[in-house]
Design a protein that fits this description.
32 strands; 860 residues
Length: 860
Amino acid sequence: MLPIRRSLAFLALGLLPISSLLAAPAKEAAAPEALETLPGFKVELLRKADPSTEGSWISMAKDPKGRLLLGGEKKEPISRITIKDGQVAEAEILKIPLSEVMGMLYAFDSLYVDGRGNGPDGQEVYGLWRCRSTNNDDQFDKVELLRTWIGGGGDHGAHAILLNPDKKHLNIVCGNFVDQPEDISPNSPHRHYADDLVLPRAEDGNGFGAGRKPPGGFIVRMDPDGKNIELVASGERNTYDVAFNHDGELFGFDSDMEWDWGTPWYRPIRVFHAPSGADQGFREGSGKWPEYYHDSLPAAVTIGIGCPTGVTFGEGAKFPAKYQRAFFIEDWTYGRLIAVHLSPDGSSYGGSWENFIAPKALHESAKTPLNMTDLLIGDDGAMYFTIGGRHTQGALYRVSYTGTEPTAPADLHDTKGEDARALRHELEAFHGHENPKAVDTAWPQLSSTDRFLRYAARIAIESQPVAQWKFRALAESDPEAALTILLSVARLGGPESESDLFQALSRFPLSKIKSEAQQLEKLRVIEVAIARQGKPAPEVAAPLIAELSPSFPAKTISLNRELCKVLLALDAPDTIARTLQLLSAAPTQEEQLNYIVPLRTITTGWTPELRRQYFAWWPIKRDASMHPDYALRWFAEAGREYADGASFNNFLVKVRRAAISNIPQAELASVQPVLDSWAEPAPKLHPSKKKRQFVQDWKVADLEADLEKVAHDRNFAQGQDSLYAVNCLMCHRMGDEGGSVGPELTAISSRFSRHDILESIIEPSKVISEQYANTEITLKNGDIKIGRLISESDDKVVIRPSMLAPEMQEIKKADIKSREVSKISPMPPGLLNMLTKSEILDLLAYLEAAGKADGAPFKK
C-alpha cells in the first residue's frame, strides 16, 4: 500500500474547485458550429481544460455517482466533473498521485488506473493501480500498485481497462511496446504465437519497433487484485480502447503503421472482433500478416487511415435505436467520430461505417483540429467526449439527440447468429484447458464454412496434448478440416512431424483445390511448417516443388505473393525469373513490392542478367496511378491527398542494400552499371530566394495575438520560401517530398491548432512524440550515448546518433546502466529566428493549406 505522496506539482492544488484556481490562457478548441454531425444531433462544448492545472485530457471514465473522471498526460492530474442538467456543475482535481492516465475504470469499489506514479521503492513506474477511499469522504486516500507494465508508458503503452461481462474480472488492452507480463498463465486462451514467416521480415525503414517479436499489442484478463493474468488475444498494433457489446462480444479499433503507406503490408485502421484466443496478425516491419492467413482473424470493418483512440457502444444513450446499437470510434488525427453499424455474420460480425461527427472543413485545406481521445455514455443518456493529447488543448463535449425519432431503450440483443455464437462459446470453453471432450466436440467444426468457428475449434484442439490429435489430423480426408488442423501440426507438431505433414498435404494438390481461399490455406500451412521446423530435407522438398511450381505465376496477387515466397524458400528452380516477370507486369507499387522484398534475401539461382533486371526496378515510378483504388479512397475519406509513408524511402534503401550484400564479389562488376544508375534518395533541399539574417529570438507570446491573421489573405510564395529557408523538408515530409526524421506535415492542421504548430517549432522539446524521440543511454562506465533507437535484440541495441547521417552505434546491453527517452528534441530551437513576423505567419498558412496555393489561407 502506498501513502498519498505530494511528489507531483499538481497535488498541492488539493481538491479545490478548478474555477477557484489561477487559470492559464486556454488554447483553441473546436467550436460546435465548426463541427458537422448527423441530422437531429447536437454538439455542445462544455468545458475547456485549464492547461496549467488540468492539463490535456487523454482518457475518461465514470464513477458510481455518474461523475466524469478525466485523465491527464504526464505530470498532469485526474479531474472530476459533475454534470447537472447537461452542464458542468462542479469541477475538481482529485488528490491522486498518478498521471499519464491512459485507462481508468471504476469497479469493485475501486478506481483502477493505468498510469504513472511512484512505486514502493519511491521509483517512478508505469503500472496498474487501485485507488480506494477508506474514510468515506469521497477522496481516494489509498493507492496500491497492482502490477508494473514494462514499456507501459507512452503512446504504445498500457491503455484501456474494462470490466468483464462476468463482473468478476478486469480486461486491459496494451500496445505493441508493452512487454508481455512474465506471470501470464500457461493456461491462457491465446498461446503459441510467433512471426511464422517463411522468409525474414524487413524491419521498419526508420527502425520503429525493429526487433520486437510477437505478440504485438495484446489483451489480458485478470482478477480484481491484478493476479491470475491470462492472455486473451493479441496481434493488434496499438489499440487504445476496447468495449463489449450487449451480448458480451469484445471489439476494438486498431491503429495502422502510417509509415507503411504505399507498401503491401500496410494494415488500415480497422474495427476488430476479439473472441477468445484471437490473433489479429500484426507483426513488426514487413511481417504483418494479410487477412487471409487462417491462423489469424479478419477485420470486422476496415476504415482506412487515422489514429484510433476511444470507443464505446451506444447502449444507454437517448439516441434513435440505430445509434444505441452503434459502435462509436474516435480518430485522433483527422478528428472523426465514426459510427460503426455492426451486423452478425455467422459467429462473428461485419458492418458498415459513417462519420457521426467531423469538422465541417474535413475535405478542405483549412481544417478544425478535433483531437478526440475518449468517450462514454453519461447517466443522462448523452454522449460525452474529450479532446487532447500531445499537450494540445483539452476540452469536454456533450452530444445529445434533439430530433423526432423515438429514443426509448432498444432491444440490443442480436438474435441473428446467436446459435453460431453459442457454438463458438462452447468451443472457447476448451481454450487453454485440457478436457477429454474437447477434441471430439471441436473436430466437426474444423470443416465449418464459418471461419471464426474453424478458428475456435482449432484453438480448442491445440489446447489438448498433441499426441491426442496429431495422427487424427494427419489422416483427415476432408479438405477444409485437414487444412485447418494441419496448421496445428505445423505449429505444434515439431520437427519429427514435418515429413508426415507434407505427406498429408500432398493428398490435396494445389491444382485440384478449386477454392482460392483453400489454396491460400494450404500455402500458409507450408509457410508455418518451414518457419517453425526449417527448410525440409531435399527428398521432402522435391515433390513439394514439383507440385507448386507449375501453379506459379497464378491468376491472383494473393496466390502469387505466397507462391513466390514459398518457392523462393525452397530454392525452386526458375522462381527468380518468374518473379521478375510478375514484377515487370505489376501495375501497382504495392504489388511490385510483393516481389522486390522477398528477393532481397535470396542468394542462389541468380544470373547477372536477372540481377540487372532486379536492380533496374530502382528508381520506381511514383504517382497516384500506381496505387489501388481502395488505398486512394482511404485518403480521400480522411480529407487529404495520398502520400507514401515516412519509412518508405528508407525501406527502399535497406531492401536494396540487403540485396547488394548478397552479390558475390566475382559478379559485382557485371551489375555495377545498373547499381550506379540510382542514388539513394536524400531530402530535396530548396534554397531560399532571400539572403537571410537574424531577425529576432522569437517567443510564442510574440506571435499569439496575430494567429488569427493566418486564416486568409496570406502570401503563398513567401510561405513556401519560408519553409525552404528553415529547411523543414530536411527532416519532415510534405506530400512525397522531404525527409522522415520528424512527423509528417501534410495533414498537420487536421490534428494541431495554429498555436500548437507554432509552439512545436519555437519550443520543440516541450512535447516529443515517442515515435520521433531519441533514447538517452547511460553506460556503466558513466558515458552517455544519445540517438534514435534503430533495432534491439536480446544482447544489444543499435542507435543512430544523427538521423541526418548514416552512422550507427552498437551498444551491448551488458554495458548499459539505464536508458530513457531523451527530453531534448532532435529538432533544434531557433529555426524561426531568421524570419520576419509576416514570413512566420505565411509559413503557418502554408502548413495549414498543406502546401496548396489555392488553400483557404491564401484567399482574400
